[in-house]
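User: Show me a protein chain along with its predicted structure.
Assistant: Here is one chain, sequence first, then structure tokens.
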Amino acid sequence: MSGNLAEKIRQQAHILLNDVIAIRRHIHAHPELSFQEKETSAYIQSILRSWDVPFKTGFANHGIVAILDSGKPGKTIAMRADMDALPIHEKTSHDFRSLNHGVMHACGHDAHTASLLGVIRILQHLRDTWQGKMLFLFQPAEELAPGGAQQMLLDGALDNPAPDYIIGQHVMPGMETGKIGMRPGIYMASSDEIYLRIHGKGGHAAMPHLINDTVAIAAQIIVNLQQIASRFAPAHIPTVLSFGRVIADGANNVIPSEVSIDGTFRTMDESWRMRAKDLIRTIAQSTAESMGASCEVEIRKGYPVLINDEALTAKAQQAAREFLGEEQLEELDIRMTAEDFAYYGQRFPACFYRLGIHNETKGIIHPLHSAAFDLDEDSLLTGMSFMAYLACNLTQ
């Protein structure tokens, strides 16, 4: 890729930075929950219209696909940003903090969307210097299963034209502003929701011989299920089974007739994932039955394992070295968090990478999904310029 084009992209990004920051702040101040992004979508559409960028909408309710066509032969590159926020009450002092009580952009989706709009504007200004087609996905509902990515695909968002590659970026609080992080191959875990309901005969806690101690049964089920990760899981496959919610609505002297347990199961292998869910059912039910009770098991299918295409990620890493410098590229560890971008990777060669937003001098140190989460807005410069450069590289 021409160094001349890289410099033109940098120049355009600098020119656009203040506008992109303003877009990010508007979206941040008006967050909307998953599958409810009506006003966010309308705002993005208004910007696209003002720029004369063609788009289609209605995917996964509020999703948008914009397109730029160079008019020259080349590959089709798709880029994705998510739009939804989280049910968190914001605790920052910004004058652009959330105006919607109890809803906050605490995962950087406002920055993802603003950055992708910046990419569109850069590529639009430099249309004569690249080839092929560019698709821009503004996706609802990354935060809530079944997720917007799967529905975008089912609704035909990437059917015509179908992309040769799809790329996405996500902010990373632990990485310094100006850096990009990548990992080829398996990167993020699958995610399934576990809901257990223990049913038995409740009663007076002083007469346990006349009842089923559903609380003790629930505790035993939790202990027994730890064998899924410690004894049944293949040693080379990362596996996490955690329970974060237990409700036994009795009293100090009352054993309830029902106890509920909610948790999450995550792993890095789809075959083991299926087997593990069968084991969860068997162990939970047999443990309850052995103690005179029953256990109702519901496992809600979540996102699949996210796998970055090896060849595509190698190209992206090389582009990062060229555009940002070797010292600005980090090799990422696997993460047991999940991302519905994984669905795109099941259909097309995909690369999902991280954008550094950490700046201790500015006090930007808080993790994702925190009420105090913030990002260094200078990271938007890297976010939009690198993605534009990478997309141009990939169309050849």
